[in-house]
């Protein structure tokens, strides 16, 4: 799968599942300097988070 197709698939899955304020791509893929070992770095911003969802992600900070 081409690099852009990978990013598009990931973004579509996130957008389908969550109500987002914004989703930003950053890092080497955003700069166009990625290679086959590069990860996909996304910043996902949500307007509001339900209590159960907030609790489930709270342990990562």
Task: Please give the structural blueprint.
Elements (H helix, E strand, L loop, with lengths): L2 H15 L4 E5 L1 H4 L9 E5 L5 H7 L4
Antiparallel strand pairs: 1-2
What is the number of helical segments per DSSP (H or I, 4+ residues)? Answer: 3
Relative strand content: 15-25%
Rg calc: 13 Å
Total E-strand runs? 2
Instruction: State the major sheet.
Output: 2 strands, antiparallel
- Provide the structure class: alpha+beta
Cα end-to-end separation:
32 Å
Low-confidence stretches: none
Rounded mean pLDDT is: 81
Order of helices and strands: HEHEH
Indicate the overall shape. Answer: elongated
Level of helix content?
A: 40-55%
Major sheet: order of its strands? 1-2
Tally of domains: 1
What keywords describe this structure?
2 strands, 61 residues, two-stranded antiparallel sheet, alpha+beta
Describe the protein.
This protein is of the alpha+beta class and 61 residues long. The protein has one domain (3-60). It is built from 3 helices and 2 strands, in the order H-E-H-E-H. The chain is elongated and about 40 Å long.
Write a brief caption for the model.
By secondary structure, the chain is of the alpha+beta class. The protein is 43% helix and 16% strand. Strands 1-2 form a two-stranded antiparallel ribbon.
